[in-house]
């Protein structure tokens, strides 16, 4: 029954992910499979999203070549590319990016696990909802950066303080969406499960958790994005150590706009990659559950 309910919850996702393909049956099987895979990739990618970056780069290149701005602060794309190559060859990019991603991963994992536990407690326990719920509602209204002075006093300016800050950034969306997802499970599903004499554990594992998964995944996805954004904020405000945020700070202090623009591009590309990774993982998990329900 739980598998059937799960397939009902995600039937709309399956329709969005399905892609109708046709192939030449006379071609070898491996060529047909390759053609189908290529069509799926190109059908899922909206190439119109590349129009704005291409236009922006073209305008930037034209303005720099025409010397429309008489300032050393407007660097050319060629200078940014040279800086990128220098950062890659010297290993500075790898050191900075790996340090930032290590902090982001640590804070994301700690905050997500804590958010799942707290969200489940608020979702399943009325006592926890009455005792902890009002405090959590107040806590999430406080700006995340308001905790920086307190965190810096308690944990210093090193990686420990940054990980604590990132954990808070990931904790809030996971807790809120987990709790809301559990509370939003339709009453009819629970009544049907009780009619089949499900135990409490069977009800949670087979009905409530599958029904709340879309909301839980939304919270985890937001936690991944928020923790990456908070990584840069932590590296700006807690400046000890290396990272992409420190690269941006060094570039601005030295008035090297090529380094600043390079850092901004790295931040954007990394955020895009994390977003794509999260979406791909979500699709893979739901597709696997749908295949299991079909069996």
TrEMBL record:
Taxonomically, the superkingdom here is Bacteria
Keywords, A to Z? Answer: Cell membrane, Membrane, Transmembrane, Transmembrane helix, Transport
Which InterPro entries does this UniProt record tie to the protein? MetI-like (IPR000515), MetI-like_sf (IPR035906)
| Localization per Swiss-Prot or TrEMBL | Cell membrane
Q: Which residues form the ABC transmembrane type-1 domain?
A: 97-278
> Which SUPFAM superfamilies does the record match to this protein?
MetI-like
What membrane topology does the UniProt entry give? Multi-pass membrane protein
- Tell me where the transmembrane regions lie: 45-63, 105-127, 139-157, 163-185, 206-229, 259-281
Protein family (similarity comment): Belongs to the binding-protein-dependent transport system permease family.
Q: What is this protein called?
A: ABC transporter permease
Q: Which organism is it from?
A: Paraburkholderia kirstenboschensis
